[in-house]
Amino acid sequence: MESICCAQVLYDFTAEPGNNELTVQEGEILTLTNQSIGSGWVEARNSRGNVGLVPEDYIEVKTILIISFVFVISLLYLEHIDFDIHRSLVFQSVILLLSVMVILCHMAVGSVYSFDEEWDDDSDDGKSTGGYGGSQAEEGGTMQRGGAHSTMKLSLNKFPGFSKTPNPEVYLLTKHISKGDDRLPIYMGEVGPVWLYPQIQLDCVVADPKKGSKMYGLKSYIEYQITPNTTNRPVNHRYKHFDWLYERLVEKFACALPIPCLPDKQVTGRFEEEFIKMRMERLQGWMSRMCRHPVISNSDVFQLFLNYRDEKEWKLGKRKAEKDEIVGVKIFSNIDPELPELDPAQVEQKYEMYSQFTRSMDNSVKELLAVGHLHWKRCTGPLQKEYRQIGKAFQNLSSVFNTSAYPREYTLKEALTATGKTYEEIAEIVAGQPKKDLHFLMETNHEYKGLLGCFPDTIAVHKAAIDKVKEADHLVVMNKISQQDKLIMEKNLSTMSYALQAEMNHFHSNRIYDYNRLVQFYLEEQVKFYETIAEKLKKALGQYTTM
Amino acid sequence: MESICCAQVLYDFTAEPGNNELTVQEGEILTLTNQSIGSGWVEARNSRGNVGLVPEDYIEVKTILIISFVFVISLLYLEHIDFDIHRSLVFQSVILLLSVMVILCHMAVGSVYSFDEEWDDDSDDGKSTGGYGGSQAEEGGTMQRGGAHSTMKLSLNKFPGFSKTPNPEVYLLTKHISKGDDRLPIYMGEVGPVWLYPQIQLDCVVADPKKGSKMYGLKSYIEYQITPNTTNRPVNHRYKHFDWLYERLVEKFACALPIPCLPDKQVTGRFEEEFIKMRMERLQGWMSRMCRHPVISNSDVFQLFLNYRDEKEWKLGKRKAEKDEIVGVKIFSNIDPELPELDPAQVEQKYEMYSQFTRSMDNSVKELLAVGHLHWKRCTGPLQKEYRQIGKAFQNLSSVFNTSAYPREYTLKEALTATGKTYEEIAEIVAGQPKKDLHFLMETNHEYKGLLGCFPDTIAVHKAAIDKVKEADHLVVMNKISQQDKLIMEKNLSTMSYALQAEMNHFHSNRIYDYNRLVQFYLEEQVKFYETIAEKLKKALGQYTTM
């Protein structure tokens, strides 16, 4: 069993001294010596024979991946066969091959679930991992199963003619007249340029995860129920549908709006319920953020996702969305700021400010995650242990006193036992607290880390546009473009800038709301935490006789 | 300078990971690389070139000790010369030699005080170190300067004819009639046999440490003022006088009563005031414990120490005490239990119980000290650092938010700053707390550890007596002793047992009082601690806008 359980390290991880951890580097191959450690950790041995704990989110189990890879290829092949026509010999033999693999995988992983989820996810969203933070240690990630390496990936091959950063030239040189339905107006609000917000804010509830299966039970998956507040009619979606939606949103909006990644898929699935709960929680967070966005929530593809009435409507909508031509930089042609044109210098100044702010906030959020991660480990590790030891020491003293045969022992003995038990309770309170308050702080910061990780891509498009416009004078002289073209470019750049400003104002408004709520909640829980402990100690204190 | 600052390790010390500590073993020679670390730590390099922190109580600075040793020898020589007669050439040259050494030592240590204290202590109580716990790591010791290795040492060479354990035979075979003044009665109290307690409990205040000097300022010392509640008239004593008293009490009472060691002397004296304060606190603790003991407090030597009127009375009393013949096992001849004689089986049963209890309590106290020590280090080390980091992370986030140029930033920015500052305050509260509550818990347990360390010696005398009486039948048969002798032995053994019972009941009563007060105080301070933090967080919470 052990022989086949090896794993590749995805991210550098530095061991904390005294915690039995193992320092590993990206790309390193480890042998897994114990996968049942729990709490997101596995025990592994490196090539130098050192054994220690590694966060399971930092590694990729190799054997599973290889088999999964074959699997995915097979499935991709199957996808091209029309299921409704006939089940040919080819199909049957592929099924047979898959069955053998399923059994092999079950043997390797020891869990039906982990394999199925694995397969499901790998086939569904195989392209959505990696990216942002790939070479950095994941500060908050290890405490929270999975969700980490989030960034928006501009699906480059979907934008014909784009190299790394989508080239805004196509858009800049075109004179646009915003069309009716797709028009995305920008108004001057109290805080500056803002998107048009709907009267009633869309929201939805992601709930009720259910295990479904297809292909004669060979392939199982989890289906979530999403109920929008507008129709109050639930729709069902699998993770792969969320991922499809994500891909569409990236294609369509990512040049103008940072689209945060979906919560990550996970490699092993030993804690089925816990994982599903966590993924649901994160899908809920992602959906709520999308719902809150006036442009995204109002888009056809998003509406389809929430409101489709039957399979047919869903399939038709899907096909339509996939054929949408207003994607990439073309989205700016829909944007219609009813505001005075900005000159390129103003545009550049805004760009610099936003670029600087998002970078700084990214660093700050990472710092908070890092210290939160440390604190989490301290509370659930050494601090819990220490309070337990204090509790035990008092109780042992009480036990010893109990053997004195001295007639006036009773009160003190009882009081010391109570004190010891109180400290044991405190140990559990301390260890349980991070889940109560730090969890939310970490999750939200994690989400923000993901969101902030998308800004550089989005902002890069603006930078490219600014550079193009800077070249315009030269191009006019060279007779490559007309003076008229230059003016169009400047107008279009102004439109892009308004889009960025509206988006930043949306971000700021959400950020202030989120962090206000977040820290408030954290402090409330912390106050309760300290008050609870004080209360418990007061009760123990009451057992002593006053002298 | 550095070259001469090497030190020998007195006790094994195991480094805690992540604290920059250095694991050292008894006997190892270290080079001191930084003596100005503070809080009881020095930085040292071992022979393998590893550098790290070591508790200064665990090491003995070598150069100082060597010079001190020569010094002590010289002084001992001086002590034998009558100062009042003449100052011969010999004396003058010794003074000259000493002066040169003083200068050398000053150069080596960089402090007048440390040398003088050193010298004073080494010459005064050179024999009172070592003993109990010598080979064990000192659990609570490092946080509290000095006071550790306490056990009573039966001054064996003062008990003629005793090998390791004082031999109770001399006493057992003698028929005693208790004399008037020295009689130590034992009564049956509510809790069993008890000493005769005085109407008013003696107590004293140790205060007002003053630096004195003699031998033309060459030798300086600290003199403490001790004021008993009986006379309210202060007397002055140096540490060496306390040590003299301790030696007398051990000589006279240690076979019957455990005499706890004095607080230890210290090797280096960099924190003059802190050290003097700590020693005074511990001398106060020791004196109070002695005052509380009905037998000790009533003894001539103890009364002399507290009540002498002038140098002459002190010197006469000293000489008388040193000539006291009722020492060692003879003390039992003064004991007069007005209670029915116990048979040897009853005696042995009591012995077993006390032996077991004191051993168990010793272990339990050591456990409490060990966990207290850990907790102290955690609070003043990693926890303080972590809360500071949390504070800093919030403040940094606030600074970043402040650069957004978004108009609705102010409240959140201010609230986050307040939150950050609150966590920085909490960091200091957490780090300062051990001095407020854990200190007293550690000190008292430390005192008990010392006291409990004396029981084995005292109890061993009883065990030896039990064994002698067990042999009595055989000796009667062999005609070595008469039947009458045997009955006398049994009666005397019964008297010894009553003494032990009275002493244990005294111990239990004090123990219950002390631990009740101790844990009560600790819990009170802990409650305040948690309430203070909750209060501070509540205040920070109030800065957020409710949404």
From TrEMBL, chains A, B:
The chain crosses the membrane at residues 58-78, 90-113. GO terms for molecular function: phosphatidylinositol binding. Keywords: Cytoplasmic vesicle, Membrane, Protein transport, SH3 domain, Transmembrane, Transmembrane helix, Transport. Residues 124-148 are annotated as: Disordered. Residues 202-312 form the PX domain. Residues 2-64 form the SH3 domain. Signal peptide: none annotated. InterPro entries: AH/BAR_dom_sf, PX_dom, PX_dom_sf, SH3-like_dom_sf, SH3_domain, Snx9_fam, SNX9_PX, Sorting_nexin_WASP-bd-dom. One of its GO terms (cellular component) is cytoplasmic vesicle membrane. A 1,2-diacyl-sn-glycero-3-phospho-(1D-myo-inositol-4,5-bisphosphate) binds at R238, K240, R279. Gene3D superfamilies: Arfaptin homology (AH) domain/BAR domain (1.20.1270.60), Phox-like domain (3.30.1520.10), SH3 Domains (2.30.30.40). PANTHER family: SORTING NEXIN, SORTING NEXIN-9. It comes from the Eukaryota. It is found in: Cytoplasmic vesicle membrane. It holds the Pfam family PX. The lineage of its organism: Eukaryota, Metazoa, Chordata, Craniata, Vertebrata. Belongs to the sorting nexin family. GO terms for biological process: cleavage furrow formation; endocytosis; endosomal transport; intracellular protein transport; mitotic cytokinesis; plasma membrane tubulation. The keyword Zinc-finger does not apply. This is Sorting nexin. It is a peripheral membrane protein.
